[in-house]
Amino acid sequence: MEKTFLMVKPDGVQRNLIGDIIARFERKGFKLAGAKLMTVSNALAEEHYGEHKDKPFFGELVDFITSGPVFAMVWEGEDVITTARTMMGATKPSEAAPGTIRGDYGVTVGKNVIHGSDSKESADREIGLFFETSELVNYEKDSLKWIY
Ligand code: DAT
Ligand code: MG
């Protein structure tokens, strides 16, 4: 089954949104495969956001993601990468639809509450950056047959 990397950013942690965000993905029918509260080092932040290293906002992005704890997660399910992006909403909160996480909680493009992998390649890369294989849990959920 497909896996994606999702992360409640420091603003989401400080604003007590971890529970709400987990609940949305749980209710949707996705399966949690790993999760941890952690701080992101400068090196990890620069690696994670490597695709943006030449953008003018790169420094700000690294400072923000390292500014406080984040809640890193791996979620599993059919088309979870694309579906999670849809549930997150557009990058710019002003363009994120109401009902999406960023649409409901974000105001500025920098502090937009959640990160989610945008492709299979980035999901594999980001899961590998943030989690050891031993931190991911393989298990069956009985509700599976009512979802698929
Ligand atoms: P997303 O997080 O939706 O995948 P992205 O990968 O283009 O968006 O950018 C990563 C993060 O960088 C984004 O969540 C917020 C920040 N960011 C993007 N564009 C920005 C901009 N024009 N000014 C400031 N921050 C920006
Ligand atoms: Mg991105």
TrEMBL record:
It comes from the Bacteria. One of its GO terms (cellular component) is cytoplasm. Homotetramer. The modification Phosphoserine is found at S122. It comes from Halobacillus karajensis. Its cofactor is Mg(2+). The keyword Magnesium applies. One of its GO terms (molecular function) is nucleoside diphosphate kinase activity. The active site is at H115 (pros-phosphohistidine intermediate). ATP binds at K9, F57, R85, T91, R102, N112. It catalyses: a ribonucleoside 5'-diphosphate + ATP = a ribonucleoside 5'-triphosphate + ADP; dZDP + ATP = dZTP + ADP; a 2'-deoxyribonucleoside 5'-diphosphate + ATP = a 2'-deoxyribonucleoside 5'-triphosphate + ADP. Keywords: ATP-binding, Cytoplasm, Kinase, Magnesium, Metal-binding, Nucleotide metabolism, Nucleotide-binding, Phosphoprotein, Transferase. Residues 1-138 form the Nucleoside diphosphate kinase-like domain. It is found in: Cytoplasm. One of its GO terms (biological process) is UTP biosynthetic process. Belongs to the NDK family. The modification Phosphothreonine is found at T91. This is Nucleoside diphosphate kinase. Major role in the synthesis of nucleoside triphosphates other than ATP. The ATP gamma phosphate is transferred to the NDP beta phosphate via a ping-pong mechanism, using a phosphorylated active-site intermediate. Its EC number is 2.7.4.6.
